[in-house]
Write a structure and sequence with these properties.
29% of the residues lie in helices and 16% in strands. It has 16 helices and 15 strands. It starts with a strand and ends in a 16-residue tail after the last helix.
Length: 471
């Protein structure tokens, strides 16, 4: 059973309610609570579970996880929390079942690490935030709900709906699958300003606010608006690079058509278009047409020297770790050698399957082009939109034309991956690696942070990409 809805519609709380119902229906039989990753699980499932457990104060950490202290932190219904195994034991069920110690075990797993879901059989399961989970992660989760002692095997899925495997499993009449839709507007417990401050429009509003499966057709990045729209200043900014601003490179390796872009983090006050939280501006680029990687790498380094930029890190295609047919060397090694003297950090790439999953990368860039609070935190320098920079010939695009031209496949509205019919994907791929590497995947805005009246704060939206220690 799926509960699909917008941000703040109460999906996670409802999913945990299903876990309680399953525990009472099958006391003593274990269940699995799965999330896209463990850090996200701390921010979603565990945070909500502390609110639901009677007498709970906070989730135990470190030595606080000792049995003698668990009840003090999580309340009287909790018997034990084994942090190494990530198993929560509740005082529910026959004292002699399922083992001599009794109780009911809730196992916590990560679809980023499918092995954490394997090795056990469960009577029921909850998968939270499935939009960020690959089809393989879903398959592993689905296969573990098979405890033969269970009268009924129950699976609950809660999150924002997305095309791909979620659409195929729940939206096309597959036997044994059903879902309920929930809108952010229908949750009476949200702060009054939450929904209005989301400021979502178009496809993103239909999915992230109203909980609809959105057919993906047409332009991928329709949030990229080079021209002003009413009071909106648009996505293009007339600005010059500054060697004092933090600088990053983003690179997509591609045989004789690699791409490199230079991005700077522009602080508030440097330009009227920059929001209070600052903005990332694509300042310059090196677009290759039938160019070998060593030459492209040298021209990328020359671009950095021309602006006096010291590059903090390079975010790039993970495929660059493998030897290139042109040189016999890994592409990352070729660029790292060429960038000596301008690169003060390292060659970075995303290792998490969640971050490398294409639909998640697209959502991350869309969220920077137009945030949930209406702010544009990803802009393009005006010079890159001029005709001589936007069209490089031979079907090769720069960042401006790539953002405008990347589309979803025609007549395949269920496919969440952009079309590969053209070459426009190289600059966008590179940009996606950078955005996900710096800020992570798109997550719901924090309710207290976005509602200044409730929090007493500034009302600033909280975004992904923060560093959280895993437990």
């Amino acid at each position: 059973m799926g509960l699909f809805g917008g941000w703040g519609s109460g999906k996670t709380a409802a999913g945990l309610g299903e876990c309680w119902r399953n525990t009472c229906y099958s006391p003593g039989l274990p269940g699995i609570l799965a999330s896209p990753s463990y850090p996200m699980q701390r921010r979603t499932l565990l945070k909500q579970l502390v609110k639901l457990l009677p007498g709970a104060r906070r989730w135990p950490r470190g030595p606080d996880g000792a049995p003698s202290r668990v009840k003090r932190h999580l309340g009287p219904l909790v018997r034990e929390w084994r942090s190494d195994d990530k198993v929560l034991t509740l005082d529910v069920g026959d004292p002699k079942s399922p083992t001599s110690r009794g109780g009911t075990d809730w196992h916590f797993g990560s679809c980023e690490r499918p092995t954490t879901l394997e090795g056990s059989e469960f009577a029921w399961g909850l998968l939270d935030e499935p939009r960020l989970v690959s089809e393989h992660g879903w398959e592993v989760f689905n296969s573990r709900i098979r405890d033969p002692r269970a009268k009924v095997l129950r699976k609950s899925v809660t999150g924002v709906p997305a095309m791909g495997w979620m659409d195929e499993q729940f939206n096309r009449g597959v036997p044994g699958r059903a879902y309920v839709r929930a809108s952010s507007d229908d949750n009476p417990y949200l702060p009054p300003s939450y929904v209005t401050q989301l400021n979502l429009t178009g496809r993103r509003a239909q999915a992230f606010r109203h909980g609809f499966f959105v057919h993906l057709e047409g332009t991928v990045y329709d949030e990229y608006q080079p021209l002003k729209q009413g009071d909106d200043a648009g996505s293009v900014i007339d600005i010059q690079p500054n060697p004092m601003w933090p600088t990053f490179l983003f690179i997509d390796f591609g045989r004789k058509r690699p791409y490199a872009g230079l991005m700077q983090q522009v602080p508030f006050g440097a330009h009227p278009m920059v929001p209070p939280s600052g903005a990332d501006v694509v300042m310059d680029e090196v677009v290759a047409v039938d160019m070998r990687e060593p030459i492209h790498a040298e021209r990328t380094a020359a671009m950095c020297r021309r602006w006096g930029a010291q590059v903090l890190d390079v975010w790039c295609d993970p495929a660059g770790t493998t030897p290139n047919s042109q040189t016999g060397l890994p592409s990352m090694q070729v660029y790292e050698h060429a960038l000596r003297g301008v690169l003060v950090g390292g060659m970075r790439y995303c290792t998490s399957p969640i971050e490398r999953y294409k639909p998640n990368r697209v959502d991350a860039v869309s969220g920077r082009l137009m945030g949930s609070d209406g702010a544009r935190r990803l802009l393009v320098r005006k010079a890159l939109t001029e005709p001589d920079r936007a069209n490089y010939g031979d079907g090769v695009a720069g960042i401006h034309r790539a953002l405008l031209g990347l589309t979803y496949p025609k007549n395949r509205p269920h496919d969440p991956r952009p079309s590969k019919d053209g070459v426009n994907d190289h600059p966008c791929d590179a940009l996606e690696y950078l955005v996900v590497g710096l800020y992570g995947v798109v997550e719901p805005p924090d309710i207290m942070a976005i509602n200044s009246a409730a929090s007493g704060g500034s009302g600033r939206v909280s975004h992904g990409g923060e560093s959280y220690a895993e437990w």
